[in-house]
Design brief:
By secondary structure, the chain is α/β, with parallel strands linked by helices. The chain is 35% helix and 18% strand. The longest helix is centred in the first third of the chain and has 14 residues, at 70-83.
C-alpha cells in the first residue's frame, strides 16, 4: 500500500492506495482506521484500484475540530476521488462510515458505480435501533467519554474488537495495534466521539436524502443481520442483501473472503 496525504474539503486525509483497475473506495467506521480493510485488499489487487482513507480526524488524518457529520464526510470522499482523478468508484462502508457512504450515493450518484453498506443502521430512516447500544449515549455527551477513557484506551478498544468479532476471537495483532494507537490520547478520542455527536445532524440529512438510485448491496454480520437491508427496501431502486455466516460485526476482518467476493473484477457489474 502507498500512503498519500490528500487535502480535501478543508482538512488533510491519510489515504492508502494500491492496485490498478476499476476503483473501489473503502470507508471505515469506529474504532477503526483504513486497516479494517487490510485483509480484504490483498484479495482485490492488482485487478482493482483500492482507495482506503482514514476518516476526518481519525487514524493518521489531521485532527479536526468539526465536520464529523455524514454530509461533510461524503464531501470529503468526493474530494479524495477528485484528487486521485477517479470519476466513479464502487463505495464500500461499514459501521460509522455507512451514513456518509449513503449520502455519497444519494447526493453524488454520478460518482458511485455501486454501494456496498455493511453492519450499520441508518439514522433518520424507519427500522433503526429501538434502543441504541449503551455506548451511543456515552460517546455522545461532549467531553465525558474522553475524560473517563484517557489512559485506558487500549482496554476500551479491545472490548469492541473482541465483542465485534465472531466468537470473540479478536483481530490480527497488527490491526489491533493500529486501532489502539489511532484512538490513544484525548484529542484522538474527541475526534472519534465526534462521529457519535453528529447523530442528530446525520438523521436529518439521511431522512431528507430521498431515494437511492445507485445499485446497492446491504451486508449484515452477526449484529445487524438483515435490518439494514429492510431499512433500505422502501427507498432503494436496486437492492440486494446478504447476511454473512461465521461473522460478527467486523465482517472485513472475520470474513474478508465474503467481502472480496462482491468486489473482485470478475464479480463487478
Amino acid at each position: 500500500m502507498e500512503l498519500r496525504r490528500i487535502r480535501t474539503n478543508g482538512t488533510a486525509l491519510n489515504v492508502a492506495v494500491d492496485g490498478d483497475g476499476p476503483a473501489v473506495l473503502l470507508i471505515h467506521g469506529w474504532p477503526h482506521t483504513w486497516q479494517v480493510w487490510s485483509l480484504v485488499v490483498p484479495l482485490l489487487v492488482p485487478g482493482r484500484m483500492v482507495v482506503a482513507p482514514d476518516l476526518r480526524g481519525l487514524g493518521d488524518s489531521a485532527r479536526a475540530q468539526s465536520g464529523f457529520d455524514a454530509a461533510t464526510g461524503a464531501a470529503d470522499m468526493v474530494g479524495v476521488l477528485d484528487a486521485l482523478g477517479i470519476d466513479r468508484a464502487d463505495v464500500v462502508a461499514i459501521d460509522a462510515g455507512v451514513s456518509a457512504a449513503f449520502l455519497l450515493g444519494t447526493r453524488y450518484p454520478g460518482r458511485v458505480r455501486r454501494l456496498v453498506l455493511m453492519e450499520a443502521l441508518l439514522p433518520g430512516l424507519p427500522g433503526g435501533f429501538s434502543t441504541p447500544p449503551w455506548w451511543f449515549g456515552f460517546h455522545a455527551v461532549p467531553g465525558l467519554a474522553e475524560t473517563v477513557l484517557e489512559g485506558h484506551e487500549a482496554e476500551y478498544v479491545d472490548w469492541f474488537l473482541e465483542s465485534g468479532t465472531h466468537r470473540g476471537r479478536g483481530v490480527p495483532e497488527h490491526v489491533r495495534e493500529a486501532f489502539v494507537r489511532a484512538y490513544t490520547g484525548r484529542d484522538a478520542l474527541r475526534c472519534g466521539f465526534g462521529y457519535y455527536r453528529a447523530a442528530a445532524q446525520n438523521a436529518d440529512a439521511v431522512g431528507a436524502a430521498g431515494r437511492l438510485h445507485v445499485p446497492t448491496l446491504a451486508i449484515g454480520g452477526g449484529v445487524i443481520g438483515d435490518r439494514l437491508y429492510r431499512q433500505l427496501q422502501p427507498i432503494a431502486d436496486e437492492l440486494e442483501g446478504e447476511v454473512v455466516a461465521g461473522s460478527g460485526h467486523l465482517v472485513p476482518l472475520d470474513r474478508p473472503d465474503a467481502v472480496a467476493a462482491h468486489l473482485r473484477v470478475d464479480e463487478h457489474r
